[in-house]
Specification:
Number of domains: 2
Helix content: 25-40%
Strand content: 25-35%
Shape: elongated
CATH class of the largest domain: Alpha Beta
Keywords: Membrane, Transmembrane, Transmembrane helix
CATH architecture of the largest domain: 2-Layer Sandwich
Number of strands: 7
Strand order of the largest sheet: 2-1-4-5-6-7-3
């Protein structure tokens, strides 16, 4: 389990409990509790904008990658270990900065789903360009370059 998401959720829960406690008691509690709850909420939400790796997967643990091309409507299953290794290694090397929400945006290029050796879905995201992905309702910008051309060639080859 990643420590950062756990801490963020913990801080958000603590802030919610403090606010709920204040509402439930309906007494004039010290305003310091509300300020503390608000600060915890801001800290937790703000920490989600710290640049981080979206993909941290060992390529040896990946069995297949399904890629749906939003331009052609074609879905490709990548099972070649060389292609999987290249794609996963490239994504592992990228650090992403969370950007604006992606709700309401239509269209995409490569919807990518990664599966482990047991056939379980490990990660799903959309690769939009050389430096931008869509993940969990937000756009993320890479600090480096996603090997978008390699992905295009693999999808066209299959």
């Amino acid at each position: 389990m990643d420590v950062v998401p756990f801490l963020v959720v913990s801080l958000l829960c603590l802030a919610a409990v403090l606010i709920a406690f204040g509402i439930w008691k309906r007494k004039r509690i010290n305003h310091k509790i509300y300020v503390l709850a608000l600060l915890l909420f801001i800290l937790a939400f703000g920490s989600t904008y710290i640049p981080h790796q979206v993909v941290t997967i060992d390529p040896a643990n990946v069995s297949i990658i399904k890629v749906f091309d939003g331009n052609s409507g074609q879905e490709v299953v990548i099972s070649d270990h060389t292609d999987i290794g290249h794609i996963i290694t490239n994504l592992n090397e990228q650090t992403f900065q969370k950007g604006k929400p992606s709700f309401g945006y239509m269209g995409y290029r490569f919807r990518t789903t990664i599966y482990d050796r047991k056939g379980n879905e490990v990660k799903t995201f959309i690769i939009n360009s050389h430096d931008r992905i869509r993940y969990k309702g937000f756009f993320y910008t890479a600090d480096g370059s996603i090997d978008y051309d390699y992905m295009e060639n693999v999808v066209e080859k299959e």
